[in-house]
Structure formats: structure tokens, C-alpha cells
What we know:
alpha+beta
Amino acid sequence: MNAQDAVEKGAKVLPRHEVTSVRGENGVWVIETRDRDSKKHRFQARVLVNAAGPWVSNLTDSVIDGAVSRSMRLIRGSHIVVPRLYAHDRCYLLQNSDDRIVFVIPYEENFSLIGTTDREHQESLNQVTISNDEAQYLCASVNDYFNSSISLEDIVWSYSAVRPLFDDGNADAKSITRDYRITSETDGTGAPLISVLGGKITTYRKLAEDVLSEVNQALGVTSEGWTGSSPLPGGSFDFLRFDNEVEQLKQDYPFLSNSHAHRLMRLYGSLSREILGDAMTYGELGRFFGGNLYENEVRYLMEREWAMSVEDILWRRTKEGLNLSDSEVRTLSNFLKEIINEPDSSSNDGGALAGSSTVQSAT
């Protein structure tokens, strides 16, 4: 949604581009990137923002010429998904003996989401997966409170992410500050560099406005913050009337099941109608892949949300991977390859479609 919003306001989004070199020349940054086809690209910028998350130190230390080194702590948080543990729609917060809190949340209609952990991540950022110890910890947390027990065999999916936290010298992972810091500097030629250290998704829009204030200062311009009152694409309705929006979508498309309409409205809001178009039946949504995933949505994700692989579609954009069988995943994978070979394919990175993933085991 944020990337779509940026594009609507004039930004250019380049997915799967690796930044290989950054140097200042006469007060301007020269940035070189390499795409998935190993093609090199060159850009210039008056101001550079290093918002690379866990890779922010990699850029300051190895890629951005003359940048001040930034010390970060990488903390891995892992989650597990199990069949739904209870029928109601409330969440639980479990206070553990190690002073950490674990949550249990209804997830994707038929499942429960359990997380999260706090572990130092010493491995490569290309290998961010849950450890057996983390999975055991989350299961034990639930078993201490719930009447029904869960084990590693109940885990249908897991995912992990790395939090880039500002190194405040605290030895305990759970006690490291979750606040963010924004630093500004210039290289030897006077080119301004702004780096984002730390931060959480709960405060990302406030963080973004603070970064833009730094950009404005570097450029010598002034502007007022606006994101607090500006909805993201598809979100221009009262969130307290979400159920009414779902009902309206079902009235406009009577063939939709309640769960399908709810999922579309939750993921895309009013943009759901761009996916559904003039369809009057499920058959008019194109090829069926399983769960409630149809061709129209797959094409929309590729054309509007930069989806390039099975994993993008089933796990990063939707969570329909929880509902598709291995054979249905293979069918989707083959379909994506067909799209890439279409003469008028709108995909901007065909090579990325080769990869796919299925349910991730925690054991």
C-alpha cells in the first residue's frame, strides 16, 4: 500500500535491485544498482536516505563511500501458526516467567498466530528462520495457560523477521530500546546522507514524517506533515464501518462468499473492485488455484503490487499458502511462468518467478 501510494505521488519503485555502489560527486550522490537479471543501473540523487532496515550497517560500512559506520543489534522475532485454538475473535497476552509477553491472535479465519521471540540473530540475513528452541518456547508458553496443549507437530507454518535495533549497550535482547534514531551527515563532497536506525512498524508513519523533515532541511524547503490524515490506497472509508464495506462488496458481487469478501476488503479495501471488475460469477475471475485465490487477483498482484514469485503471492501479499495443497502451489507456479512468456506481460522481473515456497516447517 505504501509503495502504491508513493507511485501515485510520482515515485519510481524498483523491486529486487541490489545497491552495489554509492559515492558522492560534487555534492550529488551517484548510486549504482544491479537487478535480478544482473543488469546494472545508475542513478543520481541530491539526498540519499539509508532506510535499509537490517542491512543499514552493511550499506554504511561497505557500500556508501565515506559514510559513518553505524552499530546495530539484529534481534530475530519468530512466530508460529497452528490450527485455531478457540472460537471467539479476541486475542490473549501471556505473561511468561522470563518477563516477556507472548500473544495468541485469531489468524486467517481457521488458525491462531503465536509470537513472538527475542533472539540475537548471528546468522546471515539470507537465513532468517525459526529455531527449534524458539518453536518449543512458543508452544510451552501456550501450554502454560491453555487447557489444550500444542506441540511442534501442530505447527502448520512459521515465519521470522529481524528487527534492526539501535545498539544502546544493553546486554538483554528484550531490553534494547525499540525507539528509532535518524542521523544526518554529509560526505566529503557535501552530499547529504540520512540514515534510519531502528524503528517498528507501529510507528513507521511517524518515523517517515521525521525523515522527510530531515530531507526538507537538506533541500532547504518546508512542508507540513500530512500522512496522519491521508488514507493509503483503498482505505478511504471509516474503519469503524468495515463490516458495512464487506456487506456492500457482497451486494455488488453477490456470488462472493462471506470469507472471500472479507479477505478482499481486508487486504485491498475499495481496490477490491479493481480485482473483481465486471465479474458476475466465480468463473469470470479466471483460473482457480485453491483457497479463494483466482487468476484476477494473481494478475492484479503482479501488475499493481510487484509480486514476482509464488512466495510473493501466497505469503508476502496474501496468506493463501495456508489453504493451498502442494499440487495447487505447483499449478500456480506453472501459471506464473506462462504469464512471463506472454508477449504483453507487464512483469518487470521475469527471472524472479522461478522461486517458490510451500509451508515452512518449524522442526
